[in-house]
Structures are given as structure tokens and as C-alpha cells.
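Hi,

Apologies if this is the wrong queue. I'm a grad student, and the batch job for Phosphotriesterase from Streptomyces albiflavescens produced an output file that my downstream script rejects. I'm not sure whether the problem is my script or the file. Here is the sequence I used:
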Amino acid sequence: MVNTVRTVLGDVPPEELGVCDAHDHLFFASPQLRGQELRDASAARAELAAFRAQGGTGVVQWTPYGLGRRAADLPPLARDTGVHVIAATGLHQAAHYTPELLTELRGKLAEVFVSELTAGIGTSGVRAGLIKVAGGFHALDAHARWTMTAAAEAHHATGAPIAVHLELGTGALDVLDLLCGELGVPPHRVVLGHLNRSPDFVVQREAAEAGAHLAFDGPSRAHHATDWRMPDALRALADAGFGHRLLLGGDTTTAAARSVDGGPGMPYLLRRVRPRLETALGKELVDRILTENPGRAFAAEWR
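Support response: The file is valid. Your script probably expects a header line. Output copied below for reference.
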């Protein structure tokens, strides 16, 4: 079988992704972020167009089940802007959902994931191209273990990659112990998100040595060691032989963070982060991180 990336417009060869934002959101709505929902299709189109104007050609949307994905809106956005878009299935932390919805999903979560990966999300016909789940702060609670167990089952049924939100960048090794150790998911099918938020170079290297992909995603906040520590982290990992496992993303989760609303948004990754990393790491490595690596991380032998 041939590895392909499952976009909202169909499966494409990995190299077609081009310059890719490996973790972001066009649509996102959670009770944890009331009043900052990403729901406006026109704003999403403008954000994608701004990203395209900076040379971007691929975006991986990590918005999972029940958080306002607006899957039917994704294909026209991809066509209109010329940007490949990958949609997600999966389930975030319990705090993002009502207890009633979580109860409704008991006993059928893996089935939901598989259906969205193969038949499509709802009635949209748009097939998800990854499974997104989440850990907790330095630990995995019962909800994380439930969702990751379902994600592993769906991976084994479909071949889909699994992307993991690490809370403040922590718990990476616990996630790998569960997904890859107990549940048998190949490490190269796992993408660990937000490692920039916990600048523990030892943990980062151990995760890379295990075979996972490492995503450094989201611009700096005052309480996160992100942009200013990224060059050191990426250089250390590349020098250790793991340059092929590194990913970069923007992780725009609120309306105020969009570039069209005055925030950094998707273009920031290419407008500011890319040149800074090129100065520190060299253009060749940064080009590979933005182009070759996402195609490798999100491609699968779909079943």
C-alpha cells in the first residue's frame, strides 16, 4: 500500500502538502473558551488566505469531535484558498464536554472515530485524517486512558495517525507508555503536541528516541517557554539525529488570536517563527521541518 495524507478534498501524496502548519484550528468552540469561539467561515477563509500569502500550502486542523469542526465548510475553504486542509476526529479533555455527551459516547467511541476516518464526519462526507486526543498535567486520568484506548483501536482499524495534546507540554513519556507500550501503536504514528511549552530537553530526546514525532506549536505567551527556547530545543534534537521527527504549528484557538482580528494567527509561523529559526538553524533544516516532516507524520497506509 502507498502512504497518503487524507485531506478534506481527498487523499494526496505526502509531498503535495508543501509548507505545512502541522497544528492549528480554523474552527473551534469550547465551553472553556466562551466568547472566543472560532465559528466564522469568512474569518477562517481570510486566515487561510493570509497563511497562503506567506507561502503556506497545508494546515492540519486538530479540532476533534464535538468542538465545532464545521466539517462541511472545510472543502470550499481548501478549494478557495489553495491550501490543503486535514480534519480530525478524536476527543479532547473531559472539561471541554458535557457529562451527557460523554455518557452518550461510552461503549462506542472507537466506532465513532473509525466512522469519521472512513465514512466521513456527520453528513458532510469529509473524512478525518487524524485522531486527536489529550493528556493531563503530568498525568493520564481515566478520561485520557479511555480516549487513548479508543484512538489506538481506531488506529489499528484504519492506520490513522494519532495526535496528542500534552497539557502544558507535560506527560509525553506516560502517553508513549500507554499508546505504544500497552496499546501497540507504532511510535512513528504518534504526534506529541506542545512540547515547546515544557522545555525539558531530556524528555524531548527520550520521546524522539522512542520514535514519536514532536510538535512545537503555538507562539510564545508570557508563561510559556516557547519561541525563545525553540531554536535550542530543535538544534539539540537535530544534532542528535532527530531532525526528521520535528514539526511546527500555530495552534490558533481563539478569535482574538487570529491575524485578521489583530493576533498572530496562522501567518505568524511563516512570517516570524520561520526566519528566526532559519537564522539559528539554517534554511535547509527549517525547510525540511515545514515540508517533508508533516507529510511523513500525517501520511498513512489507509485501511
